[in-house]
Amino acid sequence: MRVLVTGAAGFIGTHVASALAVAGHDVVGLDALVPQAHGTDAIAPAGVHIADVRDGALLDSLLGDVDAVCHQAAMVGNGVDAQDLPAYAAHNDLGTAELLAAMARRGIDRLVLASSMVAYGDGRYTCEYDGSVGPAPRAVDDLAAGSFDPRCEVCGGPVRWRPIDESAPIRPRTSYAASKVAQEHYSGAWCTLQSARCIALRYHNVYGPGMPADTPYSGVAAIFRSALERGEAPRVFEDGRQTRDFVHVQDVARANVAALEALESHGVGVTAYNVCSGTPFTIGEMASVLADAARGPEPVVTGEYRAFDVRHVVASPDRARTGLGFEARVRPDVGLVELASARLRTR
Ligand code: UD1
């Protein structure tokens, strides 16, 4: 297939473009080199067109003989403050809308969309009395007292985390999350209008070689890895027992290839899949694995907390296994050791 990969110069897009090429697809790359991710003097990899997905005229020329689009281009991170709202809306919401309109003009009806676990907002939990529940908002007094685990949203009692699957409610909490949900919804509208198919891949915490060194928009793996490179201890917030699923970027790339090749067998509309390792890790464990592998200072558990953080988000890999035949190959304990000495992108 001839595939347009947007965001082809980015951390994930670079790996996706190579995996598609290795799988025998003909890749056309596009990237706007947004300064938040690339700095101001970035050079695009060979063969990647430097352009914005909002440039409809350029899309019309690039999409001429394309069969499918793999849309990785986005402004990422959680957003620093409210001044970031227009940029998320412009790059992610409007960018996707322009891309979908251009695909419709060219009759292209297959899309793989990079979505995110942030669409769920929070993890899922089991309450002894209320079954599968979401968490109640964490009270500032609890957090200040060092009590970080959330309570049941129904009865206020204790809860245990459970893996989140794709049927969980969508509850975006940040500007980035709102824009990722919007991308899924615009894609749904496009599918209805065009009798088209879309697979939305909800990436969990992606890490691996080529990830950007820390910026105000970075996730925790890049922040810890960059601290260790400076000879500083990773600073672990809360009590370090908050849980995530760290998935290697090469597995994410493989999931994209699997999704592209599975689109044909999917019905009209959007189907969402978690992309995860299936092996949960606490932030404290992740910091220790990285620090040991880097022979750096031991992590420091600070007890700090951030209002927008969620406590546990742990993915169910089941639907991706049955629907895409995708299973991660890189175990986080192995991949994080590799990350300790991998090259990071310094913009
Ligand atoms: C991250 C990404 C989000 C992405 C999602 C899934 C960022 C900022 N967040 O969300 O965009 O969609 O993964 O791929 O890119 N922490 C520390 N020390 C630090 C920083 C963070 O202990 O210096 C802790 C936080 O308190 C939190 C956990 O690490 O509990 C994860 O934080 P972070 O990576 O920022 O956000 P996610 O919610 O996992």
TrEMBL record:
Ranges of residues in domain NAD-dependent epimerase/dehydratase: 3-125, 159-275
Gene3D superfamilies per record: NAD(P)-binding Rossmann-like Domain
Protein origin, superkingdom: Bacteria
InterPro entries: Epimerase_deHydtase, Lipid_A_modif_metabolic_enz, NAD(P)-bd_dom_sf
Name of protein: NAD-dependent epimerase/dehydratase family protein
